[in-house]
Description:
The structure is a single chain. The chain is mostly helical. The chain folds into four domains: 221 residues, no CATH class; 209 residues, no CATH class; 66 residues, no CATH class; 123 residues, no CATH class. The protein has 27 helices and no strands. The chain is extended, with a radius of gyration of 51 Å. It starts with a helix and ends with a helix. Pfam families: efThoc1 (PF11957).
Amino acid sequence: MSRIEAAVLEVSQQLLPKFTQLGNRVQSLINVPLEKDTFDEKDLTFQWTSLIDNDISSENFDSTVDLICKKIIQDSLVFSFDEASNESESYRIKTNLCAVVLDFIFHSRANRKNQSNWGTSFFDIFATVIELLSLPQGILAFWPYAESRINWFKMSNTDESTYSGISTLVSYKNPLSEKLRHWNSVLEILENNSKINSPEHFEVKYKLQKFLSDLLPLHEESNFNRSSSISRKQLPDSPWNKARSNTRPTSNHEIFTDDYLYAIEKFITDPIEFSFRSFTTIRNVNETLNPLIDAILEHEEDFYKIGKHNTKTVANLNSKLNDNYEADFQVANVSEPSYMSQSRVIQEKKKEVWGEITAFFQQKRSIPRPTIIDLAVGNAESLYKQIVHTENDIYRKEIILQICFVAAFIEKLINSEEIENFFKTCYQKDNNKNSLRFDEIDETNKTKILSTCKHLCENRILNFYATRDPTFHSIIKKLLESDDRFLLAKIDGFKSFAAFKFAEEDHNVPEIDKSFKKFGFIKLGNKQINNVWKINSGLETISEPSTNPGALYERLRSNWEMKEPTSEEEKDRIVREWQTLRSLRSQFLFEFKKFNEVTGTKGFFDDSATETSMAEKEKTRKLLHAMLHEEHEANLRKAREYIKEREQNKKRRNEEMENSNDIQEAVGAKKMKSEKDLAFEGGQESAISGEEIAESGVLEVSSTEQTFDDMTEDKQQEELSSREGSVAQSEQL
């Protein structure tokens, strides 16, 4: 073993227990950086006996320190035996130790022999940690460290005093170049193993991609698709949806899948060749796309009809349940009822259910599962079911967005000469053998392609959703605008972000001058009148000091106690008391409730006078209220008497009507009896005459009855008397 190896081993064995103890003591270490004074000063300055005794040269000193840090990490991650009770505790101990080592490298950077290469060591040891940790559980447990120290990575080898907050890393230079290649290979492995990836693998992939994107500046070429290569990975080839046969499509689901795959191959994944091919190819794609869009929009129409029907049904129910209460129930904020939020039983049950669901998914995060949002293009039947399922529109909208984005891109490609030249250059670099002949393209074909894409995007898709789903329509518009801005920025190389810098000095908020300032003067017509505002008022010459409110109050009290008489007139007394109130207002405002026009300033000290005055006011107030209420009571009595009299008249008329009906019945009975008696006893003449008299009486009664209700009371009495006379006459006959 060489001298350097022995020194590295000895120092690592000394630091390992220190760093382990520090990692166990600080619980939030993985999320919050350690302070510099947390470490021993001798360790930060590398005052280790083994290094000093071996007299390591300055050229090898920094690399020796890096070897010591790597040795500590390897001993903890590779050769250590887990003493933790469970897997999560084991990951916590290991990741905390790695975090302590990396924080030590950052805080000791000023004591290195070559301070400009600390960033290289920091990246190197961080990459070592990522490589030694297990994928994906270990990396996910450690990843909060990278997110919380992202500015340390961006700082790289620059001094902290000159760091402006913007990353200075370059993809093809150290310290990032070698690590970037390695991490890209890790991402490629995760992409190729998508069939067996678990949710944790996808999470690692996302976090690593975001980390690399944050490391590089926006204008760095590796941070965006500078080559403008269009992804052809539209087919997920998921093992959960396997094709059953390779025969010629005959059923609906096979025809739909065949059309969609053709659209992917010729249109979605190859828009540049589609734009510059012969019109025959364009026509074939158009003949495939139109039926495909028709089928999708037909099911979308059914989806919105169901939604509209359900909305109308709910609105009708709300109208029935909330009669005479106008409200827009569809846009109202729905909140949890109070009986649910305050019920302990419901809250405990909800917590238990969600706890079981969370625990289940946490346990199954390492198990591969199907990606439910992917289109099942590997299985025609599954894909067709995804599209025709009326209640679920996510898959239909996924295809619609693909077609809409590609159509809008082709439209910009043909309209803009700058965009066309940019993609021509990129295409010819990647496709030298089968390069398109851009110069031989017919302008007529361009016009036809432009009209086709515009028809697909605007007339077919945007116009359809404009009336049926304005929210989704606005989302598509904003996404298209965002793509347009991103495309223009990519062609320009994101130069607008290259000159972006954070302010090096703090932005101080200006102090507000709260002193009173004149507002000038009002122009009154001419200079002579305007100059009146410039004449001094003379108030500054007044020598009398302002009155002390406390002293004035005590003087008023003493005058009241001594009961000194005043010889002031009434008007002078009012003015003097008003001036007194103005002087006392700053300190004795709440005492003003004892002051009124009767008590004056004496009310401040004489409570009995104040109470007497208030009692007199209350008495006057009650008297005024009684006077106003008396007229109201008189009107109320008149109204009640009128209603009572009307009810009595109505009752009397009803009784008279009943009596008149009884009289009619009696007259009819007497008439029938008289006719029979006269016919039997003889005298056709007397019978006829009696009959005429009876008829005349009946007619008279009948005619009288028709106008009885319209007569006055006196007339009604006369009518009753005449009817009684007629009845008596008929009885005599």
